[in-house]
Design goal:
The chain has 482 residues and is of the alpha/beta class. The protein has 3 domains: 288 residues, FAD/NAD(P)-binding domain (3-Layer(bba) Sandwich), CATH 3.50.50; 103 residues, Alpha-Beta Complex (Flavocytochrome C3, Chain A, domain 1), CATH 3.90.700.10; 67 residues, Up-down Bundle (Methane Monooxygenase Hydroxylase, Chain G, domain 1), CATH 1.20.58.100. The protein has a 5-stranded parallel sheet, sandwiched between helices. A 4-stranded antiparallel sheet has the order 8-7-6-18, covered by helices on one side. A 4-stranded antiparallel sheet has the order 11-14-13-12, with helices on one face. Helix 1 runs parallel beside helix 5 and helix 6 packs across helix 14. Bound molecules: succinic acid. Its cofactor is FAD.
Length: 482
């Protein structure tokens, strides 16, 4: 009897998962994601764009320098060199997949500016709809690819191990029906943890479920304490908040306090375009003192329907016209620099298990990611991982002792809401050791209540172990401000 070649199972329908799946051709791939149509990923919400040294006066070395500066020099130097060197051909590959980046009247790609960048180097599509444009183009390619079988509407809640190697997954659909899939390799491309915080720019599905599953199976984490807070989510109350892209500040918008005073003046040489952690802490500080922070984008020129259609539509939906009114803004959990420890080929510490995109930590972002390096990482590392997996010897089944590792039950809604508030207060843009300790104790005591509690405990523990401020992990002594 002839046995079929086992598929590579990719979990997650964002850009990292789709780039991995496409690059793995001709190996068979099963791409599993929670949403039926692949929507719901943080990739689709990404506004800014993709950083790449495309200007003749720019260089990969300068891009690398800005990446390391933003990352507080905690970055893996080889990873940074590789990623920034790979950026121009990643943009070219995306164009081959059908992504139409915005061009100026001269026909050249338009290059925007964002925080932490010493020059304009952000390519974008549909103005501020870059993530949506990438997801749309890659999804069309994936759905047309003969080697990829797409399955939406399923959660992956357990991993199958055989003699210490991950060899399959268990899926659960909306009706609770379970299915087992044996795999040549399992790739987690499940995104970050923003939705575990009280306020986030991420979709609700960015809840760390893939990270929790990998940790439950014994894969080692890295840098879990580094969570980036975006300084300008639209402050309309609630959990998942609309993002106001940093590109708007690159186009001239300015942060002000309630008295109309510029918020960032004199605080950093790059002013409003200082790295995100710096700006987010300033906004947090004003809020903590009882103030409100506003983004004044009224001087941004050009047609908003072309330059910033996403922001315009979202603001108008909340009764705010950014062309005429100041926008109330707040920091929001945005990106997890930490994750499952991997090498640049996406290999986790557990044989057979790979991770790519935000769920992974290969060290490229250091302690604080540079703006518009995340879609870049998702696509470039996804392609690299898919190519490596395609070269693996085909597998037809695993012999040995099999056993399941489950993520476990989730928290009930009220406990989850309480956990989000706890994490926001204890592990937000500014942290204090006693609050981190108290929060860690609470999560430890309630660890059996749900997997989110155990994941939060791991994050808080990592934050407690890092006793000095670094990048996005800012520690203060009680009583001090700023
Ligand atoms: C933004 O557009 O401000 C966010 C882009 C990013 O996270 O890099």
């Amino acid at each position: 009897m002839k046995h079929a070649h086992l598929p590579i199972v990719v979990v997650g329908g964002g850009v990292a998962g789709m780039a991995t799946a496409l690059a793995a051709a001709p190996a068979p791939v099963r791409l599993l994601c929670r949403a039926h149509d692949g929507s719901g990923s943080a990739s689709a919400l990404a506004q800014g764009g993709i950083a790449a040294a495309l200007d003749p006066h720019d260089s990969a070395a300068a891009h690398a320098g800005d990446t390391v500066e933003a990352g507080a020099h905690h970055n893996d130097a080889a990873a940074v060199q590789w990623l920034t060197g790979e950026a121009p051909c990643t943009v070219a590959w995306l164009q081959q997949q059908g992504v139409q980046f915005d061009r100026g009247v001269d026909g050249n790609l338009q290059l925007g500016r964002e925080g932490g960048h010493g020059t304009s180097r952000i390519v974008h599509a549909g103005g501020d709809a870059t993530g949506a444009a990438l997801v749309h183009a890659l999804r069309a390619r994936v759905q047309a690819a003969a080697h990829v079988q797409w399955r939406g509407g399923v959660d992956v809640d357990a991993l199958l191990l055989c003699d210490g190697r991950v060899v399959g997954v268990r899926t659960c659909d909306e009706r609770g029906r379970r299915q087992h899939i044996e795999a040549a390799a399992v790739v987690l491309a499940t995104g970050g943890v923003g939705a575990l915080f009280a306020h986030t720019s991420n979709p609700a599905g960015a809840d760390g479920a893939g990270l929790a599953l990998g940790l439950a199976a014994g894969a080692l984490p890295r840098d879990l304490e580094f969570v980036q807070f975006h300084p300008t989510a639209l402050d309309v109350g609630g959990h998942c908040l609309p993002l106001i892209t940093e590109a708007l500040r690159g186009a001239g918008a300015r942060l002000t306090d309630a008295a109309g005073q510029p918020l960032m003046r004199g605080l950093h040489p790059l002013g409003d375009l200082a790295p995100r952690d710096v700006v987010a802490r300033r906004v947090w500080q004003i809020q903590r003192e009882g103030g409100k922070v506003w983004l004044d984008a009224t001087a941004v020129s050009g047609d908003w329907n072309i330059r910033f259609p996403t922001v315009l539509t979202m603001c108008l939906a909340h009764g705010l016209d950014p062309r005429r009114t100041l926008l109330p803004v707040t920091p929001a959990a945005h990106f997890h620099m930490g994750g499952l420890a991997t090498d640049l080929d996406g290999r986790s510490t557990l044989p057979g298990l790979y991770a790519v995109g935000e769920v992974a930590c290969n060290g490229v972002h250091g302690a604080n990611r540079l703006a518009s390096n995340s879609l870049l990482e998702g696509v470039a590392c996804g392609r690299r991982l898919g190519t490596a997996l395609a070269r693996m010897a085909p597998s037809y089944g695993w012999q040995g002792r099999h056993g399941w590792v489950e993520r476990g039950d989730g928290l009930p809604p009220a406990s989850l809401a309480a956990l989000r508030t706890l994490l926001w207060r204890a592990a937000g843009p500014v942290r204090e050791a006693p609050s981190l300790r108290d929060a860690w104790r609470s999560c430890t005591a309630a660890a059996d209540a749900g997997w989110q509690m155990r994941l939060a405990r791991s994050l808080l523990y990592a934050a407690l172990l890092r006793r000095h401020s670094l990048g996005a992990h800012c520690l203060e002594s009680r009583g001090r401000s700023g």
